[in-house]
Amino acid sequence: MDYFAHETAVIDDNCIIGKGTKIWHFSHIMSNCSIGESCNLGQNVVVSPEVILGKNVKVQNNVSIYTGVICEDDVFLGPSMVFTNVINPRSAIIRKNEYLKTIVKKGASIGANATIVCGNDIGEFAFIGAGAVVTKEILPYALVVGNPSKQIGWVGEFGHKLEFNKQGFATCKESGQEYQLKDNSVIKVK
Q1: Distance CA 89, CA 56 (A)
Q2: Which of 17, 36, 75, 188 is most open to solvent, judged by the fewest CB atoms within 10 Å of its CB?
Q3: What pLDDT is stored for residue 164 in this prediction?
Q4: How many Å separate Cα 125 from the centre of its chain?
C-alpha cells in the first residue's frame, strides 16, 4: 500500500488511490473512484462512486464528494463545503440517472461551507469565498462570494486579489507573476 489510511477509514473495493495520499479518521472511500497522488482527505470525508480527484487535492474535514464531481490537480476543498449532484432532489423520487457533472478545474479553491450547485463548473485557479452558493459557471481566476455568488474580482495562482491597471495588467504581490485582463478573461503574461 503506497498511501496512508487511518484505521477508522473505510475503503471499498475497486478504488484507485495514488501514492502518498493520506485518508484520515472516519472517511469513506466508495468503489470505483479514483484519487490521485499526494492527496489529503481530512476527517469524515466521503468520496462517492466514480468521483475523480487529481493529484495534490486537499479535502478538509466533513466534505462529501458525490458522483458526478471531478476535481483536477491542486484543488482545495474547504471544511464542510458541499457539492450537490441532483438539481431537484425528492426523497420519494429516484434520480440516480440524472446526476449532473461538476468539474473543478486545476488550482481552484472552494472556501469553508460553500455550496456548489451541480452542473456548474469552476474555472482554473478560481477562488470561491467561504459560505458562497455557486449557481452558475465560474470563470478561470474569478473571485466569487455571497448567496447567490457574485464575482467581485480576480485572483492569481497564489490566491491573491489582482488589481488591474488602466492598461489591463496586474502583478501578483507574492509570486511576481504578471497577468492581463482582456475581454473578461485573465491570462498569464510570460
Answers
A1: 32
A2: 188
A3: 98
A4: 10
Rounded to an integer, the average pLDDT of 128-140 is 98
Q: pLDDT tens digit string along 56-86?
A: 999 999 999 999 999 999 999 999 999 999 9
Residue 153 C-alpha from the chain's centroid: 19
Please write the tens of the pLDDT for every residue from 165-190.
999 999 999 999 999 999 999 999 98
The 8-class DSSP code of residue 9 comes to -
Enumerate the β-bridge partners of residue 138: 122
> What residues does 82 pair with on adjacent strands?
64, 115
> Is 77:57 a contact under the CB 8 Å cutoff?
yes
**Are the beta carbons of 71 and 52 closer than 8 angstroms?**
yes
Q: How far is CA 24 from CA 3, 51, 122, in A?
A: 11, 18, 26
Write the single-letter amino acid at 43: Q
